Amino acid sequence: MYIKQVIIEGFKSYREQVAIEPFSPKHNVIVGANGSGKTNFFHAIRFVLSDFTTQMRAEERQRLLHDGAGVGNVLSAYVEIVFDNSDNRLPIDKETVRLRRSIGLKKDEYFLDRKHITKPEVMNLLESAGFSRSNPYYVVQQGKIQALTTMRDTERLELLKEIGGTKVYDERRKESLKIMQETETRQVQIEETVKYIDERLNELNEEREELVKYQEVDRKRRSLEYTIYEKELSDTRAKLEEVESARHRASEKSNKVHLEARTAHEKQKDVEKSLKELEQVLALLVKKKKQLEQTKKDDIKRRAQVELDVKDIEERLLVEHQGQEDRMNELRHIEQEVVRSQEELVAIRPFFEEKLKQEESTTSRIRDCEHRLATLYKKQGRSSQYRSQKEKDAAVSKELKERTNILHKKTEQVKKLKGEIQELTGAIMDRSTEISDREQRVQELIAAAEESNQKFAEVKEKRDELQNQRNANWKAEEEKDSELERMQQDMRKKEKHLEAAVPRDINRGLLTVKRICNDHRIPGVHGPLIELFDCDEKFNTAVEVTAGNTLFHIVVDTDEIASKIIHYLNLEKGGRVSFLPLNQLKAKDTNYPNSDDAIPLLTRLKYNQKYNGPFFQIFGKVLLCRSLDVATTMSRQTQLDCVTMEGDQVNKRGALTGGYHDQRSSRLSYMKSMKELSSKIQEARDEGQAVKSTNQQVEQEINKVLSSLEKLNIQRSQGKSELDRLKTELADMGEKQKYSQQQIDSKERVLRSAEDSSTRVQKQIEELQEELKIDFMAALTEEQRTELAGLNPEIQHLKEEEVRCHAERLEAETRKTKLELHLESNLIKRKAEVEQDIEGMNLDDRREQMKTRRNELQSIAVSLDQSTGLFQENEKSIKEQQAQLLALKASLDETKAVQESEEQLLQEEAKEMEQLMGKRNNLLQKREELQKKIRELGSLPSNAFDKYKGKNMKELHRMLQQCNEAFKKFSHVNKKALDQFLQFTEQREDLNRRQAEVEKSKDKIRELIEGLDRKKDEDIERTFRGVAMHFKEIFNEIVVKGKGELVMIKNKDQAPPPANGAAPDSANLERSVEKYHAVQVRVSFGAGEAKTMKQLSGGQKAVVALSLIFSIQRVDPAPFYLFDEIDAALDAQYRAAVGNMIYKQAQAHTQFVTTTFRPELVKVCSKVYGVTHKNRVSCVEVISKEDALGFIEDFN
């Protein structure tokens, strides 16, 4: 076993966790500057392994914690040593064992392999591994060698004693001496007591003669007293029988009155119950009356409002209907005007076209004549216009070319106009098809709108019906909720009454158990016993006084369930509850008496047979008796508990319990009424749930209907929007058609003009072509001259014709334009406005509103009739209930009067019973006193029972007085002399026996002390021989040619033996002188004579001290050793010798951890560690031997 690793954190100068690299199992050397933390490292190991830091105060713990510069203070520290336990030196089946000690300002704890362990357990564990408390020299700190060098010879002997473990003998010897002193003290006390007893026995022997005479008079006196007491006892028994007879008669009378009072009370209870129910019904009727009044008012108010709405709608409908008629008349008038204007326009258009054509034809003819006239004039003046043929041909050719170009342009214009006219005609035809389609769609939308309006009205009517049904269901639901709330209030009152009758802890426990079962879902809990059975009300009192608080014991399936619930109860501190586990309670066969006056109480209870065990446990051994006398008799005969109907109990041991029991606070009655009310509440909930379910179905249907209404409304809106859009599009298309037709008419006029112009240009071209053929000098022909002469009059005539046609055409055009403007700007526009006004009036919606309001008015009228009828019925019911209430109150007063009378009788009977019971108790007390006096007389002479039997009481008292006079003569006699004599004799024998035992104990203690002294001397001698032998060897090994020895000096003063060969007492044993006085060291360094410690130099003393330490270690070896600068005061040759010694011992599987400032130990070590110190924090790391030797050389 050796130290494998040391881990330090927060301890002294080691702030951060320092996990030192694993140690060598042989020799490890630690080097470092002064103050770097080497000594603190050794302190850390001692902190774990030794008990030098036990019972520290807070400031001492604080000094062990790191207190350096840095962030925050260290509040805790620990040191952990990892041992290699491969040799199983520690009694733990592990190769590696971790021992940690953790300390803080308020804690000091040990941990073994991460598990908490106590300090004594740690010390025992280390001692089992060889770390002796008596030999702490496996850790040698600075100063310990110096202490050994200055140690006196006597102190050196004490050191050997400590190493040898003689401290145990000293402690046991001290304890034995203490016990021996206590034994001697007891022996002295016993001797004094025996002396007193002997004196007292002599005195008691003289008092015995007088005591015999006294006893003779005492026997006579006791015989007389017995006879007197016996006569008084007989008289008391006779009187007691008379009182019992009178009490029996009074009890029968009281039972009869009590039965009558109970009947009156039951009647009063029934009347009060009926009265309460009637008051509740009356309160509900009054509440319902208020509701009906309010409903009636609301219906009247709604009816007035709806009537006003209907009247308003009728007025609006009348106004809108009149407006619609006016608009319809206006529309018809406009339509007639439109037809007339259209007919007139149709009639005037052909005339206008004809006049237009005439005008255009006349204009064309005028142009032709004028052109012909110009051509003829040109021909006529050709010779004067042109100088030659060529010039003329050139001019004609040029003009011909221009006319050809004009003709080409005109032809293109005609072609383009025809194409445009054809395109406009096709567009008009296409648009006419679209207009036809849209007009058909408009008709379809109008039909769909009418159908949608009809469906909308039907769905709306269905919605109104469902809403009326829902309102009725709401009223029914509200009534059910009100009734349920009333019953729940009654239930809460009854629960409070029952809670008031139950102890607070039990009630709190029941509530907690209920919550625990719900929260933790614990099955197999059946509830309190009171909820699991039922019985007739007349047995309530007997059941309650029998069961008591066991009525609230909870029945569970198994005792495991009960234990689980009790565990949660204890955790939550939730009151106290008793449990009845079905698996533990079984019914037993019981022999009940066959009597009509007494029956088993269990047979009067109604419960599920699976609960037979708990019910038998509580009620199985109880009889229900007709009267208290029957109960007393049956209890004595059957050894069963008995109870009467009135609640009087007779225990099978004879104890009686009874008195008045108030039926009004019966817990079973509360529970029964709560069960009935709970059933009614459940029925009301079921009915309310059914009403809610129906109402939900109605709500769903209403939602469906509203959804249908919304869809229909959306469809109507979409249809209306589409209809409006189609009408707008139709109007736009009509305008486009008119515009296109106007374009066609305009283009046709331009086309005719272009065709005429083209024809004229064609003729001009032909004339020019003819002109090219005619000779330059040719004159006009006769025909041409005639034509030229007739052209001017013809042109004049045509112009006149043109003026006339133009006037007629202009007049027709003005009339046509006026008609078209009147149609487009006035009639058609007005017609559209009137149609829009008629459509906007929407009388169907008004009529639908009217129908809805009238239906609502009809529904309100029906509701008002129902409310009125219900109100009248309610008034009638209230009067009937009030009459019944008065009758019940009168009956209640009569019942109370009867009950008061019966209660007064009961009080009188109770007083009489109380007097009889008082008299009976006095007689019983007197009987008990007389029987006690007879028992106190003790044993009597055989003739005492008949000797004075014939004497009367007067003679007996006289004789007793004579005896008492004779007793006065013996007033000084010790009545207990004989008893005391026997008692003291027994005490003397007991004390003599105890004195002999004490003497034996003293001998054993004396032998024990002598044995301890002997063993102590043997251990001292054995330890001295071992240390002296090893000291001689080790000194010779360190000091070449040196010699050393330890000399034991014995004590010259020995305790003298006891005189006459007697055993020594505690004082002599305590004063005994020890055998050995001191241990002296004698050494020689070379050839000189031996010297003592005082004669040596400082270095030589250090060598001797080290030799002594090594000797002690060899006598009591440890698995490893810790040396802190043991070579500081040694010369080089001795340091080398010590190093070689450590090296040899380390090779023999012993671990050394040393600190040094010298090179000798470093050279022979297996591993070197360097300790550094920075910012008041120490750190340990492995270094090479060369670095360590270099550091030592620099340091020295």
Please characterize this protein's 3D structure.
This protein is of the alpha/beta class and 1196 residues long. Helix content is 69%, strand content 10%. Strands 2-1-4-5-6-7 form a six-stranded antiparallel sheet. Helix 9 packs antiparallel against helix 15 and helix 19 packs across helix 21. It starts with a strand and ends with a helix.
Which stretches are poorly predicted, pLDDT < 50 over at least 5 residues? 1053-1062, 1069-1073
Summarize the main sheet.
6 strands, antiparallel
How far do the termini sit from each other? 35 Å
Described by the principal axes of the CA atoms, the overall outline is: flat
Strand order of the largest sheet: 2-1-4-5-6-7
Q: What's the overall average pLDDT, rounded?
A: 79
Compute the number of helices: 24
Give the proportion of residues in helices: 55-70%
Rg is: 71 Å
Share of residues in strands: 5-15%
- Structural class call reads alpha/beta
* Number of beta strands: 24
Give short descriptive properties of this protein.
single chain, six-stranded mixed sheet, 1196 residues, alpha/beta, six-stranded antiparallel sheet
Brief rundown of the structure:
The chain is α/β, with parallel strands linked by helices and 1196 residues long.
Secondary-structure blueprint of this entry?
Blueprint lengths: L1 E8 L8 E2 L7 E6 L5 H12 L8 H7 L11 E9 L11 E9 L3 E5 L2 E3 L1 H10 L10 E2 L3 H6 L3 H12 L2 H40 L1 H173 L1 H4 L3 H112 L3 H17 L4 E4 L4 E2 L5 H8 L6 E3 L2 H14 L6 E3 L16 E3 L5 E2 L4 H8 L2 E4 L2 H11 L2 E4 L4 E2 L5 E2 L9 H107 L8 H60 L1 H94 L16 H15 L9 H62 L4 E8 L15 H5 L5 E9 L13 H18 L4 E5 L7 H16 L3 E5 L3 H5 L3 E8 L2 E7 L1 H11 L1
Parallel strand pairs: 3-22, 3-23, 8-21, 11-12, 15-16, 21-22
Antiparallel strand pairs: 1-2, 1-4, 4-5, 5-6, 6-7, 9-11, 10-14, 13-15, 16-17, 17-18, 19-20, 23-24
Helix pairs in contact: 5-19, 6-19, 7-15, 7-16, 7-17, 7-18, 9-15, 9-17, 19-21
